[in-house]
Amino acid sequence: MIKILSTFVNGLAALNVAILWGGRQLAWVMIALMVFAIMLQVFFRYVLNDALPWPEEAARALMIWMMALIAPSAYRWGGFVSITMISDALPRVLRSLLTIGMFLLAGVVLYILLTQALNHFNSGFMFKSSSLKIPLAWIYLAMSVCFGLMMSVNTELLLRHVGRLLGDPEDFPIPEDPDFVGAE
Q1: Which residue, among 108, 139, 145, has the nearest Cα to 123 in the 3D structure?
Q2: Facing residues of 128 across strands?
Q3: In the chain, where the domains are located
Q4: In the chain, where does DSSP find H-type helix?
Q5: Contacts of 117 (CB under 8 A, 6+ apart)
Q6: pLDDT tens digits, the chain, 184 residues: what are they?
Q7: How far, in Å, are 65, 100, 139, 143, 156 from residue 17 at the CA level?
């Protein structure tokens, strides 16, 4: 049973790593486009004294999508703020059970957020953005992508911690951010 769990976790981890890598690459492009849009607006507004109608809205949409693509990577590799002094003081088994409980709770919250985000996405086809004239659904889709990817990461981390509790922890290592391994 542990071998099956390990195989599944490794497959899900490989999928998450590949998708999150792509998301991080797209996020860099979005940051560059966001800076370009803002600088273009500054030039048109203060140099030509003729502000463009779309750069602020474009920059906001790019920022929303950038966040949606980066947040799952931060979640997988422990980039969010956490308070661990209570869990660190617990024995290994209790710490593992607490961690598993927290991942289960996070999974419930992410499921609720994902269903709400999908409903919001569907309603976004009724309205267009004021200056870009695109359906707001395409901007709202960012939250569905974010919560869907975070749910996939949460599932991987939950199963990884179950495997660490029931099997050999070395068979279920905590993921290390490939962009920062050996950077210390």
Answers
A1: 139
A2: 135
A3: 2-171
A4: 2-42, 55-76, 85-89, 92-123, 137-166
A5: 140, 143, 144, 146, 147
A6: 888 999 999 999 999 999 999 999 999 999 999 999 999 999 999 999 999 999 999 999 999 999 999 999 999 988 777 778 888 888 989 999 999 999 999 999 999 999 999 999 999 999 999 999 999 999 999 999 999 999 999 999 999 999 999 988 888 888 876 665 444 4
A7: 19, 21, 24, 19, 11
CA gap 69, 2 in Å, rounded? 32
Model's pTM, two decimal places? 0.87
Sort residue 91 into left (φ over 0), alpha (ψ -120 to 50) or beta.
Answer: beta
- Give the SS3 label for residue 53: coil
- Joined tokens for residue 77: 């590799």
Q: Which two tokens stand for residue 133?
A: 């004239």
Is 124:137 a contact under the CB 8 Å cutoff? Answer: yes
